[in-house]
Every structure is written in C-alpha cells, then in structure tokens.
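[job 0412] stage=complex_fold ligand=zinc ion status=START
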Amino acid sequence: MTTLKRVDVHVEGVVQGVGFRPFVHALARRLGLAGRVHNDVNGVHIEVEGALAGVEEFLTALERDAPPLSEIERVTVVSARPTGHHGFTIAAGVPSGLLRPLVRADGATCDDCLRELADPADRRHGYPFINCASCGPRFTIVRGVPYDRPLTTMAGFGMCRACAAEYHDPGSRRHHAQPTCCPACGPRLRLHDARGTELCGDPIAGAVTLLRAGRVVAVKGLGGFHLAVPAADERAAALLRGRKHREEQPFAVMTADLAQARRLCEIDEHAAELLTGRARPIVLLPRLPGAPVAASVAPATRSLGLMLPYTALHHLLLAELAEPMVLTGGNVSGEPIAYEDDDALTRLSGIADAFLIHDRPIHVRADDSVVRPMAGEVTVLRRARGYAPEPLAMRWPAPRPVLACGAELKSTFCLAEGRRAFVSQHIGNLENHETLRSFVESIDHFCGLFGIRPEIVAHDLHPGYLSTRHAKEIHGVELLGVQHHHAHIASCLADNGDPGPVLGVALDGLGHGPDGTLWGGEFLRADLTSFERLGHLAQVPMPGGSAAVRQPWRMTAAYLGDDHPGLDVARRNPWADALRLAPASPLTSSAARLFDAVAALLGVRDKITYAGQAVVELEQHADPAERGTYEAGITHGDLLVVEAADLVRAAAADLAAGAGTRAIAGRFHNGLADAVTRACDALRHATGLTAVALSGGMFQNALLLEATVARLRAAGFRVLKHVRVPPGDGGVSLGQAAVAAARDRA
Ligand SMILES: [Zn+2]
Ligand SMILES: [Zn+2]
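[job 0412] stage=complex_fold status=DONE, emitting structure tokens
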C-alpha cells in the first residue's frame, strides 16, 4: 500500500474566471488524485490527496501549466491528514468572509468561440453573446465577489440543460464559465426604433439596413453604449457629430479584421499585436493617404483610432455591414457614456435613430481604452475596458491600504494594497454630478471587489477639485495632499518600478503650485517621497483666467503682447481686450498653454471644445519630417527658467516671413524638445542626476515625446516614460498612491 499524502493548497492571483478550477480538476484526474477545488474569497483553494509522487507532480504542474489568462501571485501549501476519500470535485464558491479575489478585465471573443460562431452546425451559430472561460465579459458584469454567476448580471438567466451540462463538465471549455449562455437561455438581441418600440426581424440585419441608409445606430457593448455610422459616409458622420452637440473629438473606427484595418492605417507587427490582443483597445495609428474615411470622422488629424471587434455582436455586425464603422462613445459631449438601458434610451434619444440592445445588464461603465505606439513602445492613453481592474504590480509594498483620488480631468482613482495597485477605469472629467456619482460609486465597488479598506487617502492639493473635496469628506483616515506634478513624476517612477531620484519633467495642463501660481511646465528633482522644484517654463499671464483655457488665442496674446507683426490671429480676435486683462490674470508656467499659443498663432485653433484639443491638433498639423528648430533661452537664478516666449516669437517671425505653418509647428516641437534637453543638461551639472522621467499630458504627443527622448538619450540620459498608465492626468492617481505608500514606508 502506497503512502497517502494530502495537502491544502491556496493559490492567490488572477485565478478566478479564467478556467483555473477546471484546469485543477483535469490535472488531479490525470494524476489519479482525490480531493476538491473551490473559489474562495482570496483566490482558489485546493485539497488534494494521493500518492506522494502524484501530489508532487501536481504541485509542479499547477504553476507550470496554469491557464494562459491566469496569473499566479502566490501558492501556499500546508500538509493535512489524508481522508482516504475518492474522486475529485469542484465545489461551489463560498460567499463570505473577507473579500479579496481578483476579478479580471473583460476579454475579446476567443478563436474557439469565433469558430463556433461561424459554424452553422453549432448551437451557438450566430449567437451574439457567445463566450467561454477564456473570453467574454468579466469586470463589467460583476456585482460582487466571489466571482460566481449569482453575483454577476447573468444571475437572471437560468442555464438551459445543454449549457448547464457544459458548465458542470470538467472537460468543457465552458466549465464554470460564469457568463456562459446560448440562444435558448441567454440574453437576447433586440432592435428598437428611436422611440423605444421593438422592430421585428433579425436585429443585426435591421441595424445594418439602417446604417447603410445613413442612420445613427446606438449599440450596447460591454462597458456602455456606442454610436455607429459607416465610416466612409460623410453625411452620416457629420449628422452624428452635429447631434452630439458638434463634438470635435475624433471618432474611433472599428474594422471587421486586420485586412480591413490595413486599408485605413499603417499597421506594423507591433500595432497588429495591439489590435488583435485580448484587451482590444483603440489603437492610434498613422492614417494612410486617401484612406476611405469620411472627413468628419477625425477632422484635423493625420492619425486614426482603430479597434477590432471584441464581442460576438461586433463581429456579426461588422461582417454584415462589410465595411468599417464609426463606433464612438454613446454620450452627449462632456457627459459620461450611457450604460444603462433606460438612461441610454433617454439621453441618446436625440442622437440615435435606432438602438441595438440586449437584456444583459452592464454593472460597471467602462469606456474603450486608448493606446498609442510612441518612441518604439506603446503607451496607454486611456486605461479602461480590457485593462481595468487588473492590478499593476508595484515594486514596493504599501504598508497600509491607500486610496488615491486622482485629479480632475480624465479622472481615475487608485487603490493600493501590498504590492498591488488597482487603478480604476477612466471615469471622465470630474466636472459634473453624473461623473462624480460614477467616481464615488466606483470607489465603493472597487473597495468591495478587492476587500480593501483604505487607511490613507491621498489627494491633489487643488482645494476646488471634486476629487479633493471627496477625499476630505472621508472620515477616520489619514489624509495626504500630493502636489500635482510630483504625482505625475511619481506615477512615471511607479510605472517603471524606479525609486528615483530623477530629474522629473512634467509638461502638463494646469496644476496647483505651492506658490499659489498655476504650474504645468516643471523641472523637479523627485523621488517617491518628496520633490524639489528646480526650474520651470517662464510664467505668463492667462488673460481672463479660465477663459484663456477655452480660447487659446488669448495665450498667443499673452506671449506676444503688442509684438505681433500683422498676424492674422491678432486680427481675428479682440487682442487688445486680452492684453488689458493680462496684468490682473493668474500666472502660469503651463506647457499646454504654450502649445495653445502656438496653435492659435498658426490658425490651427482659436477656441477649443475639449481639453487638450489645441495640443492634439498642433501635433497633427506639424510636419513630422521637419528638422528645423527654434531656440529658447535658459536663465539661471534661484530656479532655472526656460524662456518659452522665444519659441512663440520665433514661430511668429517665421509666419510673418511666409514660412509654412506645418514646418513652423514642426520647428516648435523640436524647439521645445531641445529646450527640455538643454535644461536637463544644466540640471544634471547642478544635481548629478542622470535619469529623466517624462510625464504630463503633453507627452501623449508622439512628436514631442519622440523628439525629447531622442535628444535626451543622445545627451547620455537614461529616460523613463509612461507605459502602463497615461502620462496625462489619468495616471496621477497611481502617482499619488505611490507617494503615499513610500511615505508610509519611510
Ligand atoms: Zn471563448
Ligand atoms: Zn443555454
């Protein structure tokens, strides 16, 4: 008789909802072991018993052969007394105790499911909600933990006999796949007209007929509603833009597959990988000349945001339409996207002519993520569906749990515990009640999902941000204010697992400076616990305060004053009024306001309708091949000052001399990158620091980032840039959390 060995194994990490229990079950069966496996609040718990060699092999294979979507963080093994029982079972989850499992991000429909979708003999042929343990909705349908069907928005769909058999069959791809369903038992697709009346016939064919007729169709996706029109139909795209209150942000385009995508954009191997990966973000790519995309889809840009279908519904819709389709957020400009059916039918009633919807509720709103290949790597610009809520691994632990409330624009929050940082999905600009509600609810939801009770709450220093106000209303916690640009640089350090100190270059919009001015073009000496301001862009007034943010031409006036040799921008706008306001206006060192000044100067943009518009459009306007540059003076007093006005004056002089605006925009980008590099060089001499961290929204600009990185590297600097979280304010919460954790360790 062989000696029996029994062990209790506890597996932590991303192990729920990824086919882990079926994998364990199959492994134990193969090795002839007895016992059971179940999800518990911390991960997966396994009791396994059998011959010693078998148990040892089990423990080895458990980590070696784990399912592709799982991420094991820790395995704890404890010996137990053998019971002599036979058989191996999968037990139900235990919904009690401390909640600490990891819920995965939603994942694109897998190849196995796509094969079934296309197979006329399969019972899920053409079924828009097909999914399995490797793919489908996760984060957006989870109401609570542990991750089991009753705590998802699939709870209302009783499984049919065939689905239940698969769900309970350890050999099936759908073994314990919580959202599994089929046409007999799962969600049903419907097409409604603008007034909410259901239309008869096949909903997808009906939607495509409307799309081909130039109508706007609202489509319920994974994390919210989209608005769709054919991407080549200028009349429909312009109509959609008009109905979205003349929103000017570029629309994203979904193509059926890579082949279709290659007809619109330049796609290298790296881009192809991003487009076809599990997260399926919108990928910002260079648009091909003459690409068949209507002018109103992405006006004033050379690039295009592309994504591939990530649900079966999208696959079916695109296959039927047989051409690329605009798929933009289902909202009115400035509001969060709609994700609840009633809300969508109300809020989108003036925009959509029809609604392609279904009866599986979305529990959590999640926008499409946006990524951009830049400087040879990819940077996440908006982190939401497909990425959130997966934790970012931190190089150093947070001794006590932290909630970091982020900034105001492109808001996110971050919960940090141990070595994990859970950065929320992009929530939006915290400027209205609806977004604030979403922010507060999401914090509660994350705390529940990950069982984190914050003891430290970090916030921005700006007293007026709704995120700061929210932080200050939380009782019984330690509050920590983190300066905005320190948070930016700390975010870049945390993103790279680097402790600093570094020279931090934060080129940004506006952030509250401790000296009472508005910062935004900063050179800092920073590590995770502290920072010192070493230099900045020269301050200029923002004539009329916030009016200057909405009207970039005012910044041109602030930079040039009366020195405007017959420039159009001065003729187009009430220049003298701005100059009269300037002396009493707030001062700023913001890099975004510098970009604004040049954008208006070149006639790219006098007024904006969304934050960062002038910056985005100036990059798109610039000739990327331009090698010329402008030179900004650098002065050394208590602080280093970059005389950014030199760049604006050089651009104005070139313009007056008849130079092309695309060349001028290119020279301005090069000039700023050059000034940053020379400033860093001077600061290297003063501090001995040889690493530079680049953060702030301006580094979403590929032209500026690439020009700066190239010059810094050529000057011998080690350069840190963002990868996993956005350089813009969406990354600030991670930086705040990193600072709070570092100070707590100190
Ligand atoms: Zn699948
Ligand atoms: Zn079924």
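Residues 430 and 437 are 9 Å apart (CA to CA).
[job 0412] exit 0
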